């Protein structure tokens, strides 16, 4: 993990100390050195955190021997060996070739097509003095962030963090209310906008080229939902999954410091930790560090029985901490939401992640493997039910539902009911004149609301007048309708999840949380090869024989303890979060939400008051109410700091 910055004065003005301020704003990303390069109207900067063995030989920004190219990069390249064999970069006096040197040689060979040849996580900028343009690229899923501001005929600036761009006086700081609405409306939105109108994100799998005479953004890769796999047997699929997953973990273990692993006891983090143990260098002196959050006072959130199953099977250097003792608001929000960066988007378990990263860093780790969102990569496979219902294959639908219900110990009708209503009753009832108006008018009475006894649901936080006035309602409808138009089955639903704006925002937020404490978070489930394989696998290997994520469970035979491999439930930190949110912050909640809110024009104040009163008076805060309070507090504190 590093930080990069670049600025190009399109009007020809020389770059001054702006580039120094830009990298200085990201000093937490560069404990191993901050350096800048400038020449005339162009400047590049770099904040170094040494994580791979080759990083100690990096000196960035890197100037090509001819002086024709300059590069700065935040990158881990996984296909190093193949690229070195193809590119034959200049021999570096007996030392290993660095990842940045490989990228630069790739650019010199393939030009702006070079990202197509790279595997790994990367964001980089190349100043091409011959062509007089700045070329920028971001990895396939957006693991490495890259933000930019482009002012017509004046400047183009790019950086790993928004706060870096805000160091430039010419960059306007006008708020983007549409992004605020996305957060309050729990909508992933697009993959380019930010909370400032003048600052945007280079989307995943895109390049951006900016010069005096040109400016373009090009998608160099896309995930293909039409690709299918046809192997001979389920054993072949399981073996292929295990091989790809092991490779994804192994590639992310290239580190010059001890490796850390998150270990929650769930399917994802346990798979990563166990695979990492199996592939680690057996001669290494340091054991893999694992870390878990446990809860003494909230047993509903405690996962010790599953964590113990992993620790009994493998020899880890393990640490645990009590989540009951962590305040999810203070000082956590002050640490992460400090102006003028970006607010949190609602990951209410981030306060636990932050503590885990901080603890591992104190123990000497610089790289932490995370099981982040394996659900999206592998898929629970419920799209198969929709696929069968949409095709009218009700006998097959009933067979899959029955197997799942028997396996999970739940009622088959409860699973089937939404599909029956949507695909059979819905099309008939919706044709009744005036039905939609009646449904809106009687919302809650007809059981449309969250069944939590409060009458508050997820759609109530965003002020409806603001949503309509700002155009957010129409924009959301348009995005969802376009997505639905292109969704016909399990693969399409999974593809939509994998490529949506919500995933990009979550990856950025998780990366930023780790970066604040000097940790590089790596995500094996977001390996391009593994994602492509899982998407192309047959639907019955995602939901089959009564099991979700069946291909994952089959593939982890001999790696995962059986107690976890065939685990039916899923951990839930929500219980602890709800309790801690209120118990540790009652006075602050009351004081903060009693004052006039800066976000009052964006939120439904009746909903905010109802959530506050429920939290402070009844002591029975629901999931919906807790997340509403978190969302309000996150944005409110950020705006006050801003």
TrEMBL record:
Pathway info: Amino-acid biosynthesis; L-asparagine biosynthesis; L-asparagine from L-aspartate (L-Gln route): step 1/1
Signal peptide residue numbers: none
Ranges of residues in domain Glutamine amidotransferase type-2: 2-213
Coiled coil: none
Enzyme class of the recorded protein, top EC level: ligase
Residues that hold L-glutamine according to the record: 99
Gene3D superfamilies found in the cross-reference section: Glutamine Phosphoribosylpyrophosphate, subunit 1, domain 1 (3.60.20.10), HUPs (3.40.50.620)
Catalyzed reaction equations: L-aspartate + L-glutamine + ATP + H2O = L-asparagine + L-glutamate + AMP + diphosphate + H(+)
Keyword annotations from UniProtKB, A to Z: ATP-binding, Glutamine amidotransferase, Ligase, Nucleotide-binding
InterPro entries assigned to the protein according to its UniProt record, in alphabetical order: Asn_synth_AEB, Asn_synthase, ASN_synthetase/amidase, AsnB_N, GATase_2_dom, Ntn_hydrolases_N, Rossmann-like_a/b/a_fold
E.C. numbers: 6.3.5.4
One Gene Ontology term from the biological process aspect of the record: asparagine biosynthetic process
GO molecular function, one term: asparagine synthase (glutamine-hydrolyzing) activity
GO cellular component: cytosol
Family per similarity comment: Belongs to the asparagine synthetase family.
Protein known as: asparagine synthase (glutamine-hydrolyzing)
């Amino acid at each position: 993990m590093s930080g990069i910055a670049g600025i190009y004065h399109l009007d020809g003005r020389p770059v001054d100390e702006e580039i120094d301020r830009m990298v200085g704003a990201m000093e937490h990303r560069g404990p191993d050195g901050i350096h800048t390069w400038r020449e005339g109207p162009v400047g590049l900067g770099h904040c170094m955190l040494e994580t791979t063995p080759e990083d100690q030989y990096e000196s960035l920004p890197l100037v090509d021997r001819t002086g024709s190219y300059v590069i700065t990069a935040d990158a881990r390249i996984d296909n190093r060996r193949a690229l070195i064999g193809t590119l034959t970069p200049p021999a570096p006096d007996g030392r290993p070739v660095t990842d940045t040197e490989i990228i630069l040689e790739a650019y010199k060979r393939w030009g702006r097509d070079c990202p197509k040849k790279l595997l790994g996580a990367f964001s980089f900028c190349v100043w091409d003095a011959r062509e007089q343009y700045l070329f920028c690229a971001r990895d396939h899923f957006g693991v490495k962030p890259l933000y930019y501001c482009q002012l017509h005929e004046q400047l183009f600036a790019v950086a790993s963090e928004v706060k870096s761009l805000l160091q430039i006086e010419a960059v306007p700081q006008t708020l983007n209310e549409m992004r605020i609405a996305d957060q309050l409306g729990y909508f992933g939105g697009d993959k380019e906008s930010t909370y400032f109108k003048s600052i945007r994100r280079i989307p995943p799998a895109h390049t951006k080229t900016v010069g005096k005479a040109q400016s373009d953004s090009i998608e160099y890769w896309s995930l293909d939902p039409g690709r299918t796999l046809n192997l001979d047997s389920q054993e072949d699929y399981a073996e292929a999954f295990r091989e790809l997953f092991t490779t994804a973990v192994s590639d992310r273990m290239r580190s010059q410091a001890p490796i850390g692993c998150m270990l929650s006891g769930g399917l994802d983090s346990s798979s990563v930790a166990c695979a990492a143990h199996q592939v680690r260098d057996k001669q290494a002196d340091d054991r893999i560090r694992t870390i878990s959050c446990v809860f003494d006072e909230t047993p509903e959130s405690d996962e010790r029985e599953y964590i113990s199953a992993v620790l009994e099977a493998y020899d880890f250097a393990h640490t645990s901490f009590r989540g009951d003792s962590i305040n999810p608001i203070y000082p956590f929000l002050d640490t992460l939401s400090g102006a003028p960066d970006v607010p949190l988007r609602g990951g209410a378990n981030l306060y636990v992640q932050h503590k885990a990263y901080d603890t591992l860093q104190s123990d000497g780790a610089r790289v932490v493997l995370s099981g982040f969102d394996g659900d999206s990569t592998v898929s629970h496979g419920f799209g198969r039910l929709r696929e069968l219902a949409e095709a009218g294959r009700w006998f097959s639908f009933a067979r899959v539902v029955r197997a799942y219900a028997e396996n999970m110990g739940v009622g088959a009708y409860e699973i089937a009911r939404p599909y029956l209503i949507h695909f059979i009753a819905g099309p008939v009832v919706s044709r009744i004149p005036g039905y939609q108006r009646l449904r809106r008018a009687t919302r809650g009475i007809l059981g449309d609301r969250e069944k939590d006894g409060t009458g508050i649901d997820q759609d109530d936080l965003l002020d409806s007048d603001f949503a309509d006035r700002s155009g957010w309602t129409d924009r959301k409808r348009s995005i969802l309708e376009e997505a639905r138009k292109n969704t016909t089955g399990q693969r399409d639903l999974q593809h939509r999840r994998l490529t949506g704006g919500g995933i990009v925002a979550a990856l950025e937020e998780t990366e930023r949380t780790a970066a604040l404490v000097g940790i590089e978070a790596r995500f094996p489930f977001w390996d391009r090869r593994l994602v492509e394989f899982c998407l192309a696998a047959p639907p019955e290997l995602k939901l089959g024989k009564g099991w979700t994520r069946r291909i994952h469970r089959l593939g982890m035979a001999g790696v995962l303890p059986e107690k976890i491999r065939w685990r039916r439930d899923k951990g839930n930190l929500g219980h602890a979060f709800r309790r801690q949110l209120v118990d540790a912050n009652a006075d602050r909640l009351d004081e903060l939400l009693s004052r006039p809110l800066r976000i009052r024009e964006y939120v439904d104040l009746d909903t905010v008051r109802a959530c506050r009163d429920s939290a402070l008076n009844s002591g029975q805060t629901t999931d919906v109410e807790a997340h509403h309070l978190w969302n309000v507090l996150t944005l409110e504190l950020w705006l006050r700091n801003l």
